[in-house]
Amino acid sequence: MRVRSVTLIRLLPRALLAALVLSLLISCETISYYGQAAQGQLSLLLAREEIQTLLDDDTLAQETRRKLALILEARQFAKESLLLEPGSSYLSYVELDRPFVVWNVFAAPEFSTRAQTWCYPIAGCVSYRGYFSERRAREFAASLEREQLDVYSGGVDAYSTLGWFDDPLTSAVLHRSDHALVALLFHELAHRLVYLPGDTTFNESFATFIEQEGLRRWLQGHPQPGLMAQLEREEQIDKAFIALVSRYRDELDTLYAQSLDEDVMRTEKAFVQEALREEYRGFRQEWDYRGYDRWFAGPLNNAQLGTVASYNDLVPGFAGLLRQSQGDLARFYAEVTALSKLTIEQRTALLSEAGL
């Protein structure tokens, strides 16, 4: 992959800043973790190629060309119609030698659904730890399991640096359908607009809602026969899945609140997990849908159940807030900005009320 000198020149000030931040963090976290994070991010930035330059290359594979052109079109739509702020992100592309760009590790206590958090500068405290190497993610996950924590990990094909760098598109996402690729772009750009350090549920629920609303508006101008009906059905299935998992997560919360012997608690927890698996078997038949099979092949532990909450719990609240704004995104963003100045408890309560 060619590296153009202009990219490197543009990168140096940010890279030096990142190195300075890293040096200040060594007392808080291991050199090893921050070292891999800095190296991984730098490798992405150095491997970038301008999408427009690639599109001018006659040897570019036709399907890759079509997907990259779609990204540029969706990026412009996000700026003009969704009032997002892409900056210079997603104007470049990186061909990866791996299926995912990073692997995230989640953890929670054995008898609590409250996710463990890790704190960083810029991003604040979040409920996962990311690695650019699958091996290192697995090693970290194993170390957490030795501490008797519930652990869940998985690959991620895109993430946002929140405007600190000009994020590239990577080959990890090109397998997605057109509408899924566009939705992903809207999700990641939403993080550039609104991000509250330390409130993962607010951040991810907001981005998920913008992804959904942005795709709905995009498809109004890019109609595809049968796609809207398909997406409406998938949305119904997603809501049913979230309700199913949330119900069992609440059941575990009730269990953990009891004063039980640990061995008894462990046995009861296993019963709840198996009941969830059993109900999912009926879910598959009812909806004739197998899209969650891989997810249900996981441990269904506290860490895994918490990932569903992070991305979805406040989505109905943001939908209600947009309705209150009569669909006006500028007003909606102003309301979201006002919420961001409140405490977590205050904004969660207001969003929960708006979602009723």
Q: Would you mind describing this structure in some detail?
A:
It is a single chain. With 356 residues, the protein is mainly α. It has 2 domains: 5-176, no CATH class; 227-354, no CATH class. It starts with a helix and ends with a helix. The longest helix has 30 residues, at 227-256. A hairpin with a 3-residue loop joins β4 and β5 (124-126). The model is unreliable at 1-13 and 19-28 (pLDDT under 50). Strands 1-2-8 form a 3-stranded mixed beta sheet. A 3-stranded antiparallel beta sheet has the order 6-3-7. Strands 4-5 form a two-stranded antiparallel ribbon. 61% of the residues lie in helices and 8% in strands. It has 14 helices and 8 strands. The radius of gyration is 21 Å and the shape is globular.
Would you list the SSEs in sequence order as H and E?
HHEHHEEEEEHEEHHHHHHHHH
Number of separate helices? 14
Helix/strand class = mainly alpha
Q: Please state how the strands of the largest beta sheet are arranged side by side.
A: 1-2-8
Number of strands: 8
Q: Major beta sheet, specifics?
A: 3 strands, mixed
Residue-averaged pLDDT, rounded?
Answer: 89
The level of helicity is: 55-70%
Proportion of residues in extended strands: 5-15%
The low-confidence runs, each spanning 5 or more residues with pLDDT under 50, are 1-13, 19-28
Q: Describe the global form.
A: globular
Q: Using the CA coordinates, give the radius of gyration.
A: 21 Å
